[in-house]
Amino acid sequence: PAGQEKRYAAEVEVLSARSRAVVREPVETLLVGSSIFRLWSSAATDLRDADLVNHGFGGSRTWELVEYVEELVVDFSPEVVVCYCGSNDVNAGASAAAIARRVEIFMKTVEDALPGVGIVYVAINRAPQKRDRWAIVDEANQRIEKACRKGPNRVFVDVNEGLFDARDSPRTELYLEDGLHFRPAAYREVFGPAVRNAIERVRASSRG
Q1: What DSSP string runs through 67-81?
Q2: Spatial contact of 100 and 140, defined as CB atoms under 8 Å apart
Q3: Is the pTM of this model over 0.90?
Q4: Which of 38, 62, 104, 129 has its CA 20 to 30 A from that of 138?
């Protein structure tokens, strides 16, 4: 949006340069998004992909995902892009419609630049810290899931089922004290299996 400060230019430059120095081509799977992915230090293990590229950055919002799509995604020509972003938009007061619109712009930009690419979007998590804004989270996820149905190589994965218990309460043991970010068990038990399955599905659809 107009007037937004570009907070992460330096971090993005360092991240992309570091990856260019070490990645093997072609890149099969690339993660991009906010701190939920940035803090997923065990992603390569949990997703069983030793060559995984993780470009989670800062406390990024969806407009920043669009802003840096070339440097963080397109320049690496991945086969599958896994995205998590939107949590910080909710905290900043963005509407569900605005969040979903920017996610769709991101997906379309990636698809236009990389024909045949697979995209996995991981649902915004219904964190305890956002309890009073779960309605916005739910609406944003519904809109993004609908957007994912528009593309043959897009998969929406809802991790929230695994983050809630049988009483429909958040599994607080999976969260850090801030009620927003995750402990390693959440990535190992919830994100890993769900995202692996989604990657397999999108690869199958990409192969036709």
Answers
A1: HTHHHHTGGG--SEE
A2: yes
A3: yes
A4: 38
Beta strand spans in the chain (E): 29-33, 53-56, 80-84, 118-122, 154-157
Every domain of the chain and the residues it spans: 9-18+25-207
Q: Which amino acid is located at 150 in the chain?
A: K
- Give me the count of residues in the chain: 208
Tokens found for residue 18: 């570091």
Written as one letter, the residue type at 97 is A
Q: What are the CA-CA distances from residue 111 to residues 51, 68, 107 (Å)?
A: 22, 15, 6
The hierarchical CATH code for the domain 9-18+25-207 is 3.40.50.1110
SS3 170: strand
